[in-house]
Known about the structure:
Elements: E1 10-14, H1 18-30, E2 34-36, H2 43-52, E3 57-62, H3 67-74, E4 80-87, H4 92-97, E5 106-109, H5 117-129, E6 145-150, H6 156-168, H7 171-174, H8 179-199, E7 221-227, E8 231-238, H9 247-256, H10 260-272, E9 286-292, E10 296-304, E11 318-323
Helix pairs in contact: 6-8
Amino acid sequence: xxxxxxxxxxxxxxxxxxxxxxxxxxxxxxxxxxxxxxxxxxxxxxxxxxxxxxxxxxxxxxxxxxxxxxxxxxxxxxxxxxxxxxxxxxxxxxxxxxxxxxxxxxxxxxxxxxxxxxxxxxxxxxxxxxxxxxxxxxxxxxxxxxxxxxxxxxxxxxxxxxxxxxxxxxxxxxxxxxxxxxxxxxxxxxxxxxxxxxxxxxxxxxxxxxxxxxxxxxxxxxxxxxxxxxxxxxxxxxxxxxxxxxxxxxxxxxxxxxxxxxxxxxxxxxxxxxxxxxxxxxxxxxxxxxxxxxxxxxxxxxxxxxxxxxxxxxxxxxxxxxxx
Length: 324
């Protein structure tokens, strides 16, 4: 890729963990990104200096939800800032108690030793290239993308059976049975399709989902699958762009809550609100939502098929939101 294919990007790393700082610094340098580590409580001054020096696009990585600080950063008018929140077992309870997470477009869940490199590099690629849609951005280069169009709600049966067969067939690649993964994938896809067919469409939002629905040409849903040897990506795109960013907070609280009583209450709220997707998110490696308001919403669910299904809830996760 020539330098003209993307813009320059700088990164400010403001995390407590020395391990994470070292790892992030090396990762950004490998991506030709200038990493900066501010002194304590001096990030605003660093942002202003970078703006004066000509920086236009900045990735801010932090492990602390400091909303006032982020608002001050955003008042530095010449900078376009992408805020990324890193959490781990020690900090995830802060997410649940936070009132407003709307400042963060990207949330990465780390284990105690490492940040999730692939998810972070995928985020960097999208921001740099300004190309956001499609599962091809979320899997390794060269992975084949299966593309389909859904024009009738009854076609969900075909998609269900075909995806189950597709993932089951991967057992010959992975060297072990994949029926459990296949069932997970089918359940995830079903929720994505239901959101795209009914929830996103103002005309069908209150229609009984047991009734077959034929979609107009301008209402059809795009579906993509891809597998790169490790990750299965399932993408569903609707032509309405009605997903609201506030929904992120419900997602994050559900994903990172540890209190069992609160978990049960959130599950009940999600079920009552018709938000079945939130009930299965613990099986995902990553959820990527890209919204072009009033035009398109794409939701991409990624499952790591090399992870033991019983350990899905303990693995690294990421959430990404792109507003384009």
